[in-house]
Amino acid sequence: MTPTPLTGAVMAPLYGDMQATALLSEEAVAAHMVAFEIALARATEAAGLTESGSADAIAAALDGFDADLTGLGQGTASAGVPVPALVAQLRGACGDAGQALHWGATSQDVVDTATAMALRDVLDLYAGRISVLIDALQQQSEAFGDVVMGGRTRSQVATPITFGMRIATWAAPLIALEAELPALKARIARVQFGGAAGNNLAVAPHGADIAATLASELGLGAAVQWHGDRSAVMAVGAWVGRLTAALAKMAGDLILMGRSEAAEGKAGKGGGSSTMPQKSNPVASEAIVTLNAYATALNPMLAMAASPAEERDGGRWAMEWFALPQILIAGAAALRHGADLVATLQAFPENMARMLDANGGAIMSEAASFALAAHMPRAEAQTLVKDALKLVNGQGKTLTEALSEIGPDGIDWVQILDPRQAIAPSQAQAKAIFANRTNSLEETK
Are 118 and 28 a contacting pair, CB within 8 Å? Predict the structure, then answer.
């Protein structure tokens, strides 16, 4: 047990993600805050509010500047945010030019904009990973496109599908999430500049111009202040929650497929037991399930933070700092494990075939009833199939044998009850799923 399962030395290799953690680290966010202050100096100078040349002097003085994080911590303990302490450090480094720093901004402008920059970088990380993952899923779906297995509904064997189709269904929600990502990134990667109470009173009437220059300098979208509108932050958390849910569906299916009594497939390296030599535990799949639960549980905290009191609210705002980085790291870790699972995916067709043959091939009962419905009313057809199943269960016949015995003449039951009949419609379904991705990517170009 550890208070830092996403970042600690013992648990983070399983539940954490080094790249996402680095992008969200205190060092990275502090660097974004410094970048904000430099960009603000340029924006206020361009608006004629600060002395000409001050922005270049500030940029030169802060080239390679590393904030004293301990000092920022002490400042946070006093002010509730690190910005006053940071501005003091920056002014100390800039000398006389430092008087042009932080002109017209409030602490939340600095923190929110730095957060937006960090989120932009993390979403770029996600974009690369999700693209690679979907590519891999499509390759595996095609590779296993003619491997027939028993489809299951409500935990019971239903009708045959292909393993390739099941893999495609894993990809379907990821394809939708990938398509939404550019708009999500544009929604959150916006500059925050509203000043003390959100109306830029200290720099009026230049607030909008300063915000636009800030956005251009920082590579963000220009926007009206969003101190009291946290919907974009909620949208990021919800998107990651949906991502981990999609990955947990895949992981959960793999756990079920790998059960000892089924052994239809597996993925991942597997983990050994401390006492049972025969076991190979689905560690990566289990980690994804855990990470999904964690990200899902944290999202309500973002919802609580989204109703700040009046113009700005320090208490609810801080809830985002507790929840958002953890959600993002959990999502990145789930993606990392998902890629490993897909890369190591294995199927065991002989075990899948055993399930298809179970109970005399009863898995094809639906196909039998529809074939009979061409010769008699459907209700009668279903009754006849039930009678055939009684022979299967009572006399050990196959469904083909039973229907050949009691059904009408002229029906090729060997062909109709062949589970391989599921290959063509399953492949069509998988192809349609990945065609959605092709269409959505073309629309975003």
Answer: yes
**What residues are paired with 265 via a beta bridge?**
347
**Residue 353 structure tokens:** 């075939």
Give Cα 233 to chain centroid, integer Å: 15
Q: What gap in Å lies between CA 174 and CA 168, rounded to an integer?
A: 10
Beta-bridged to residue 152, according to DSSP, are 157
Residue ranges of the alpha helices (H) in 96-218? 107-143, 163-188, 207-218
Residues making up the chain, counted from first to last:
445
Asked if pLDDT for residue 275 goes beyond 90, the answer is: no
> At residue 380, what is the residue type?
E
With the CA atoms of 74, 79, 81 and 86 taken in that order, what torsion angle do they form, in degrees rounded to the nearest 10? -60
Question: Residue with structure tokens 């013992």?
Answer: 10
DSSP classification of residue 347: E
**75 alpha-carbon distance from chain centroid:** 35
How large a percentage of the chain has pLDDT more than 70? 97
Residue in 166, 167, 216, 170 with CA at minimum distance from that of residue 191: 216
pLDDT at 269: 79
Q: Cα–Cα distances in Å, from 63 out to 27, 35, 83, 114?
A: 15, 10, 19, 18
* Rg of the chain (C-alpha set): 29
Distance CA 319, CA 306 (A): 9
- DSSP category for residue 221: B
**pLDDT for residue 401:** 92
- Cβ burial, residue 221 (10 Å; 0-12/13-18/19+): middle
